[in-house]
Amino acid sequence: MGMPTGPERDGVHLVIKSDPLAVRGGLANLLASPLLCALNDAARGTAEIVLAEVLNNIVEHAYADISGDIQITLCNRAGGIVVDIHDQGHPFPQERLPQGTLPETCPTNGLPEGGFGWFLIRSLVQNLTYRRDKLGNQLSFILPTEADSETVSSFRPT
Predict the structure, then answer these.
(1) Which member of 9, 74, 76, 120 has the greatest number of CB atoms within 10 A?
(2) Helix (H) or strand (E) segment spanning residue 42
(3) Within a domain: residue 3?
(4) In what order do the strands lie in the sheet with 11-17?
(5) How many domains in the chain?
(6) Quick one: DSSP state of residue 113?
(7) Could you tell me if residue 2 is inside a domain?
(8) Which residues contact 139 (CB under 8 A, 6 or more apart)?
């Protein structure tokens, strides 16, 4: 699964396997790092939601029928925490990020099973970019170091 390495306060680098249990453990390790522990509760909640969504999407889609590693690097910079995630799984369709529009809901049918992840990610991060190159998928974004607790709590299940 891997433990965070690197300068503890300014950055973290972690490599995890592309399976749900490794993602769960890797997410716990990231959230326990001094870099993310230093965030206020709302910003830490944002980091947890975004990282969980991104990592689970990589396992479910990029590595749907193959396995491999997911490399995560977090760096503390002015304006937020820069997150770079690299995997060698399948690319996004047309090598583009999903639009992140909310799925249609029907009060009589309840909420759909999925379709909320990219809306959440796009709503909670800054400077979201994706590229596919010969080394695989590279996703980058900035997590805010100060987050509005009302915004974050509106995305959490009650």
Answers:
(1) 74
(2) helix 41-57
(3) no
(4) 11-17, 69-77, 80-87, 136-143, 126-133
(5) 1
(6) S
(7) no
(8) 54, 83, 84, 85, 86, 128, 129, 130
Query: Is the pTM value of this prediction over 0.70?
Result: yes
The CATH number for 92's domain is: 3.30.565.10
Structure tokens at 122: 């796009």
For residue 143, being part of any structural domain is answered with yes
121, exposed or middle or buried, with CB in 10 Å at 0-12, 13-18, 19+? buried
Q: Is the Cβ–Cβ distance between 67 and 18 less than 8 Å?
A: yes
Structure letter (DSSP) for residue 103: P
Residue 6 located in a structural domain: no
Q: From first to last of the 158 residues of the chain, give the pLDDT tens digit.
A: 454 444 445 799 999 999 999 999 999 999 999 999 999 999 999 999 999 999 999 999 999 999 999 999 999 998 899 999 999 999 998 888 877 666 666 666 665 555 578 999 999 999 999 999 999 999 999 999 987 555 545 554 43
In the chain, the N- to C-terminal Cα span, in Å, equals 30
Contact 87, 58 (CB under 8 A): yes
Identity of the residue numbered 120:
L
| Residue numbers of the domain that contains 23 | 11-155
